[in-house]
Amino acid sequence: MDVGSANRERAEGQLAQIAGTVGLARRLGIDVWLRGGWAMDFFLGRLTRDHEDIDWFAPAADAPALAAGLHELGYRPLGGVPPEQQLDFEKDGLESSFTLLDFAADGRALVAGGPWAGTPWPAGLLAAEPGRLGGVECPIVSPEAQIEIKQMMPVWDTRRPRRPKDAEDIARLREALG
Question: Is 0.85 surpassed by the pTM of this model?
Answer without folding.
Answer: yes
